[in-house]
Amino acid sequence: MAATQARETKRSTAKSAADNKSILEIDDDHKPGFDRAVTARLFAYLKPHRSELLVAIVAMFFTVFANVASPPLIGWAIDEGIRRRDMSVLLAGVLIFIVLQLLGFLGFRIQLSKMAVIGQTIIRQLRDQLFDHVQYLSIGFFAEYEVGRLIARIISDVNVVREAVTFAAVGSIREVLMLFGIIISMLLINIPLTAVAFTVLVALLLIANFWRIHARAAYLRVSDSNAKVYAELSESFNGVRVTQAFARQQQNYDRFAGDINMASRRANVRAALISGTFYPSVELIGGVATGALIFVGGTLALDERITVGVLLAFILYIQQFFFPIRLLAQRYNLLQNVIASGYRIFKLMDFPVDIGDSVDADELPPIEGRVRFEDVSFRYVRDGELVLKNINLDVPPGATVAFVGHTGAGKTTLVKLIMRFYDATSGRVTVDGQDLRAVTQNSLRRQISVVPQDTHLFSGSVMDNIRYGRLDASDDEVVAAAKAVGAHSFISQMPDSYQSDIKEGGALLSTGQRQLIAFARALLADPRVLILDEATSNIDTQTERQIQTALEHLLLGRTSFVIAHRLSTITSADLIVVMDHGRIIEMGSHQELLDLEGVYHQLFTLA
Predict the structure, then answer these.
(1) Which of 182, 222, 392, 466 is least surrounded by CB atoms within 10 angstroms?
(2) What are the backbone dihedrals phi and psi of residue 446, each rounded to the nearest 5 degrees, phi first?
(3) Using CA atoms, how far apart are residues 418 and 7, in angstroms rounded to an integer?
(4) Average pLDDT of 285-289?
(5) Measuring CA to CA, which residue among 280, 301, 288 is closest to residue 196?
(6) pLDDT confidence of 8, banded at 50, 70, 90?
(7) CA of 432: how far to CAs of 221, 257, 390, 416, 429, in Å?
(8) pLDDT value for 30
(9) Residue 66 or residue 85, greater confidence
(10) What are phi and psi of 426, to 5 degrees?
(11) Which secondary-structure segment (H or E) carries 600?
(12) DSSP letters along 81-146, please?
């Protein structure tokens, strides 16, 4: 109950945050630059890891110290050991240098391992939260938002956050401290040589700024193109049967290879070219700076104003100097990417759950199955056309109601309201007198089963898929449900019978077999209300007769709603509701409607 209340509180705040934007706009309305709110939320994920973060920061200081202290140590060993031919000084310098390197290695190892663990933990937490939230989003959300884009958010964008945590969170501090340490050390050792090193800094900063601007735009295009690739792959592979049925493989390939994948290539090539310009430029400037140092420092050494050891220390420093600047330029771009990714992640995480339990929602007790539509009107989109108009319908417990009418008449929308996949725009839907908006969705849906026209089966065994309707059901109950709908005969002929793996989506089964398993799954749940949405449209006539015989017994005492284009399958329904353009135009039994000689009579005659 606490989790439900927390989710409802979050949903109410997210509602205003979303500002009623289109679903797709949550990917497109972020402006480049620093975002304080996103940054604060990302840092909040680091708070539970304060102790590990502190260890990583302490270890980072060892790495900085080892890097900054090594060049003057080498210079001292050369000046005091080699020039004066003092082997003990040289040996001491070498030993101290090795100790420093081991210290730096240990610090870097601890820093990376700690931050890697923190990064992976945050990834798991973000993905858990996103997965949990997305499951509760309305059906309308999935009608607009491509699955591939969802995968891109949960995989690619979360990985960007992991990369930032693992390599940039503490790494950026290390680079800044190294820069300051190198600059201070250079100033303390020799000011003229430091001035020479700084002359190339302006050019380096200009190149870094150029790269920062263009790299950000390039990597954003890469991220967007990757999301489109994910979306295309998901859609194409999910619809592979239709593709093959219409022999559209070449057209799909042309679309993917010629447009989407080529756009991804162009985006990645541009990003690679920008990076390929920046890094060699930094190396070139580093080489020029080293040459200038050798010339100026060599002149000073010849005049005996500095020692060779000092010159060597500066050369080592100048090589180190450009390394953190290059990394900081990368870190800046990564920071921009992680803010953009974090923005998309949190926009998705905050997207309001339109159909949710109110804070004071009650558990729906065991129901008899009386369903009422009280002056119900409904539209899918705000300010859109009404799909249902002033529906009034009272269904007594145990009755079988059939909805008929042309495509788009509103039949499926009615049963979606019963399942509370949507809420009525006006009016109300009640079960046993209780408004569906006043009860929890779980307590409602535990007592309702639905078999859609296009059923979905999960990877796993036949037994597991049927048991999905009631997880605590025994094997015998699963088999009994399968027998009741006529699925037992073909299941028992499968290689491992009920333990046979049917793969994702039931790819190894025929359409009719998948539908029979869906029937068994729904009936195993022992619902008080059963909804069949074109559930027999994909089943052959012989199997349909078998199911009809089973349903006459199994639906006894249950309230059932049937949507069917085959009017011969609903002649025994207690009530037939004829719909047209969102309105009920006729109601009655099969014979009563035939006697009216109205729309139903025409439909039945033409069937």
Answers:
(1) 392
(2) -65, -20
(3) 23
(4) 79
(5) 288
(6) very low
(7) 54, 56, 20, 18, 10
(8) 55
(9) 66
(10) -145, 160
(11) helix 599-606
(12) IITTT-HHHHHHHHHHHHHHHHHHHHHHHHHHHHHHHHHHHHHHHHHHHHHHHHHHS-HHHHHHS-
Task: Give 363-416 pLDDT, tens digit per residue.
Answer: 889 888 899 999 999 988 777 788 899 999 999 998 999 998 888 888 888 988
Closest-CA residue to 31 (of 263, 216, 264): 216
Q: Give percent of the chain with pLDDT exceeding 70.
A: 89
Instruction: Specify the amino acid at residue 379.
Output: R
Please give the residue that has the higher pLDDT: either 152 or 488. Answer: 488
CA neighbor of 403 nearest in space, from 392, 411, 393 = 411
| Nearest CA among 205, 344, 343, 341 for reference residue 278 | 205
| 40 contacts 346 by C-beta, under 8 angstroms | no
Strand partners, 451: 532
Output DSSP code: residue 526: -
State the sign of the Cα–Cα–Cα–Cα dihedral 249, 250, 255, 260: positive
Distance CA 327, CA 191 (A): 26
- Strand 400-405, strand 559-563: pairing: parallel
Instruction: Give me the residues paired with residue 400 across strands.
Output: 560
Q: What is the pLDDT of residue 82?
A: 79
Average pLDDT over residues 112-122: 88
Map tokens 């950000």 to a residue.
216
Query: What average pLDDT does this structure show over 103-116?
Result: 90
pLDDT for 15: 41
The answer to whether residues 371 and 364 touch, using CB atoms and an 8 Å cutoff, is: no
Distance from C-alpha of 452 to C-alpha of 449, rounded to nearest angstrom: 10
Place of tokens 């089943």: 539
Read off the tokens for 389: 């108009």
What's 439's DSSP letter?
B
Q: Give the Cα separation of 102 and 106 in Å (integer).
A: 6
442 contacts: CB under 8 Å, gap ≥ 6: none
The fraction of the chain above a pLDDT of 90, given in percent, is 11
The one-letter code for the residue type at 168 is A
Of 443-447, 451-455, 492-496, 602-606, which gets the smallest average pLDDT? 451-455
Give the integer Cα–Cα distance in Å for 42 and 563. Answer: 48
The SS3 of residue 583 is strand
Q: How far apart are CA 196 and CA 225, in angstroms?
A: 44
Token duo for residue 422: 């949507």
Contact assessment for residue 222 and residue 267, using Cβ atoms and an 8 Å cutoff: yes
Q: Of 342, 340, 359, which Cα lies nearest the Cα of 10?
A: 359
Torsion sign across C-alpha atoms 56, 58, 62, 68: positive
By CB neighbour count within 10 A (0-12 exposed, 13-18 middle, 19+ buried), where does 237 fall? exposed
DSSP 3-state assignment of 395? strand
What's at 61, amino acid-wise? F
Nearest Cα neighbor of 75 from 237, 337, 306, 420 is: 306
* Phi, psi for 461 (deg, rounded to 5): -85, 165
Instruction: Render pLDDT for 310-333 as a digit per residue (tens, 0 to 9).
Output: 888 888 888 787 778 777 777 777
